[in-house]
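This part of the workshop introduces the protein records we will be handling. Backbone structure tokens are a discrete shorthand for how the chain folds in space. Once this layout is familiar, the rest of the handout is easier to follow. The record below serves as our worked example for the rest of this section.
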Amino acid sequence: MSKKRILKEFQTIQASKPHGIEVSVPSDNIYIWEAKFAAPEQSFYKGANLQIQIVLPEEYPLSPPTIRFLTPVFHLNIDQSSGQVCLGFITADNWNPTNGIEDVLRGIFSLLITPQVEAAQDQKILGIFQDSPRIYERRARESAKKCR
């Protein structure tokens, strides 16, 4: 079931390109995808070209995918060393097998516009976001400039 669903989702996303997101499978492994997209216009990352890796577990869709940014992005929901994304609904506790990769991609896109304070990946960056929003915005925009 897993491979069949993954292939179907892949084909659907390639055809629909939600938010202009393009997906590919860079190797022979259908469980590892890459996605490239322009950052949302409404975000601090406007103008950046971003890339993420999506790793689907063999138990997918019963278990959530793992998402990490391959391009460095200053964001409170993204681990600065690994690029790992913390998005509320893709945690093991909150994942619903009816969700799909397109939902995840839309969630990542939205996360860049509106960070999830309750799912902060980096407490130091969360502190900057809450205590010094101008500094957070400046650092986010600086990280976006490096991705053009």
User: Anything to note?
Assistant: The chain has one domain: 2-145.
